Protein backbone atom coordinates (compact mmCIF):
# COMPACT_ATOMS: atom_id res chain seq x y z
CA UNK A 1 0.00 0.00 0.00
CA UNK A 2 1.44 3.40 -0.97
CA UNK A 3 1.84 6.10 1.63
CA UNK A 4 -0.66 8.93 1.54
CA UNK A 5 0.29 12.53 2.28
CA UNK A 6 -1.28 14.11 5.35
CA UNK A 7 1.00 17.16 5.59
CA UNK A 8 2.02 19.87 3.13
CA UNK A 9 5.08 22.06 3.71
CA UNK A 10 4.99 25.40 1.85
CA UNK A 11 8.05 27.58 1.22
CA UNK A 12 7.96 30.98 -0.49
CA UNK A 13 10.76 33.24 -1.69
CA UNK A 14 11.09 36.32 -3.92
CA UNK A 15 13.90 37.28 -6.31
CA UNK A 16 14.54 40.25 -8.57
CA UNK A 17 12.82 39.64 -11.92
CA UNK A 18 16.07 39.76 -13.91
CA UNK A 19 17.53 36.87 -11.87
CA UNK A 20 14.41 34.68 -11.82
CA UNK A 21 15.49 32.27 -14.58
CA UNK A 22 18.89 31.78 -12.96
CA UNK A 23 17.33 31.20 -9.53
CA UNK A 24 14.76 28.78 -10.94
CA UNK A 25 17.54 26.54 -12.27
CA UNK A 26 19.65 26.84 -9.11
CA UNK A 27 16.66 26.16 -6.85
CA UNK A 28 15.74 23.06 -8.84
CA UNK A 29 19.27 21.65 -8.99
CA UNK A 30 20.17 22.24 -5.34
CA UNK A 31 16.84 22.35 -3.50
CA UNK A 32 14.09 20.60 -5.43
CA UNK A 33 15.92 17.61 -6.95
CA UNK A 34 16.98 16.21 -3.52
CA UNK A 35 13.49 16.90 -2.17
CA UNK A 36 11.86 14.89 -4.97
CA UNK A 37 13.78 11.82 -3.78
CA UNK A 38 12.33 12.02 -0.25
CA UNK A 39 8.90 13.67 -0.32
CA UNK A 40 5.73 11.93 -1.50
CA UNK A 41 5.30 14.74 -4.02
CA UNK A 42 6.63 18.18 -4.86
CA UNK A 43 5.05 21.07 -6.75
CA UNK A 44 6.87 24.25 -7.74
CA UNK A 45 5.27 27.53 -8.75
CA UNK A 46 6.53 30.84 -10.13
CA UNK A 47 4.70 34.14 -10.44
CA UNK A 48 6.45 36.82 -12.48
CA UNK A 49 5.64 40.41 -11.56
CA UNK A 50 7.03 43.64 -12.97
CA UNK A 51 10.11 43.85 -10.72
CA UNK A 52 10.20 40.53 -8.88
CA UNK A 53 9.30 36.87 -9.18
CA UNK A 54 7.87 34.80 -6.37
CA UNK A 55 8.67 31.12 -6.08
CA UNK A 56 6.65 28.67 -4.03
CA UNK A 57 7.45 25.04 -3.31
CA UNK A 58 4.89 22.69 -1.82
CA UNK A 59 6.12 19.30 -0.66
CA UNK A 60 3.83 16.55 0.56
CA UNK A 61 4.67 14.21 3.43
CA UNK A 62 3.24 11.20 5.20
CA UNK A 63 3.56 12.98 8.56
CA UNK A 64 5.75 15.36 10.60
CA UNK A 65 8.26 12.62 11.60
CA UNK A 66 8.80 11.83 7.90
CA UNK A 67 9.66 15.48 7.27
CA UNK A 68 12.00 15.46 10.28
CA UNK A 69 13.84 12.41 8.92
CA UNK A 70 14.53 14.33 5.70
CA UNK A 71 15.60 17.61 7.31
CA UNK A 72 17.50 16.02 10.20
CA UNK A 73 15.92 18.55 12.55
CA UNK A 74 12.65 20.35 13.25
CA UNK A 75 10.94 20.47 9.82
CA UNK A 76 9.24 23.75 10.70
CA UNK A 77 12.68 25.42 10.79
CA UNK A 78 13.62 27.25 7.63
CA UNK A 79 16.53 25.81 5.64
CA UNK A 80 18.27 28.22 3.26
CA UNK A 81 20.24 27.04 0.27
CA UNK A 82 23.86 28.23 0.19
CA UNK A 83 23.24 30.87 -2.50
CA UNK A 84 19.82 32.04 -1.25
CA UNK A 85 21.30 35.24 0.28
CA UNK A 86 22.69 36.12 -3.16
CA UNK A 87 19.36 35.62 -4.94
CA UNK A 88 16.48 36.25 -2.55
CA UNK A 89 15.20 39.75 -1.87
CA UNK A 90 14.82 38.73 1.76
CA UNK A 91 15.42 35.41 3.43
CA UNK A 92 12.14 33.76 4.46
CA UNK A 93 11.83 33.42 8.21
CA UNK A 94 9.45 30.47 8.23
CA UNK A 95 7.70 27.77 6.25
CA UNK A 96 4.03 26.91 6.48
CA UNK A 97 3.02 23.41 7.60
CA UNK A 98 -0.62 22.52 6.95
CA UNK A 99 -2.71 19.38 7.21
CA UNK A 100 -3.99 17.94 3.97
CA UNK A 101 -7.64 17.10 4.51
CA UNK A 102 -8.59 15.77 1.07
CA UNK A 103 -7.52 15.87 -2.54
CA UNK A 104 -9.83 15.97 -5.56
CA UNK A 105 -9.16 15.46 -9.24
CA UNK A 106 -5.82 14.86 -10.93
CA UNK A 107 -2.85 17.16 -10.51
CA UNK A 108 -0.14 14.91 -11.98
Automatic annotation (TrEMBL):
It comes from Reyranella soli. It comes from the Bacteria. This is ABM domain-containing protein. InterPro entries: Dimeric_a/b-barrel. SUPFAM superfamilies: Dimeric alpha+beta barrel.
Amino acid sequence: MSKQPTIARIWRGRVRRERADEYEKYNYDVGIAPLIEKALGVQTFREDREHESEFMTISYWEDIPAMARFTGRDPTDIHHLDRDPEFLIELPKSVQIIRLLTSHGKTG
